[in-house]
């Protein structure tokens, strides 16, 4: 597996900047739009679960589950950016992920933050 399969985040040329900070150096917030989120729920793959169970006996990384979680987080982030863009934002501040179990059926991943319009400081 390549390093790209274990990482995530934003594409370089995105029109909506996503940051974990409360501000962006060199920019001012012109308008706060409000909270936005992207949500996805993934069911457990029986094959991955069996493989993970066996791997847990001998130790080591659960690469199949890692790859699935990266894909799930990326999907949640894409939905977050789509919602912010649709509401007129060009940035999302205080970006976070929340991961929970969904009724023993799968994993819920929520990407959330504050949609804003930013402009360069003058």
UniProtKB/TrEMBL annotation:
UniProt-listed Gene3D superfamilies: Hypothetical protein apc22750. Chain B (3.30.110.70)
InterPro entries xrefs: UPF0145_dom_sf, UPF0145_YbjQ-like
One Pfam family here: YbjQ_1
Signal sequence segment: none
Domain of life: Bacteria
Family: Belongs to the UPF0145 family.
The protein, known as: UPF0145 protein HG542_21120
């Amino acid at each position: 597996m390549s390093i790209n399969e274990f990482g995530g985040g934003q594409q370089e040329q995105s029109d909506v900047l996503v940051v974990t900070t409360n501000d962006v150096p060199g920019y001012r917030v012109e308008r706060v739009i409000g909270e936005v989120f992207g949500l996805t729920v993934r069911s457990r793959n029986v094959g991955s679960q069996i493989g993970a169970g066996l791997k847990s006996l001998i130790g080591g990384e659960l690469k199949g589950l890692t790859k699935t979680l990266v894909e799930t987080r990326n999907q949640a982030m894409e939905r977050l950016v789509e919602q912010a863009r649709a509401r007129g934002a060009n940035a999302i501040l205080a970006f976070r992920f929340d991961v929970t179990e969904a009724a023993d059926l799968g994993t819920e991943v929520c990407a959330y933050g504050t949609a804003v319009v930013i402009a360069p400081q003058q």
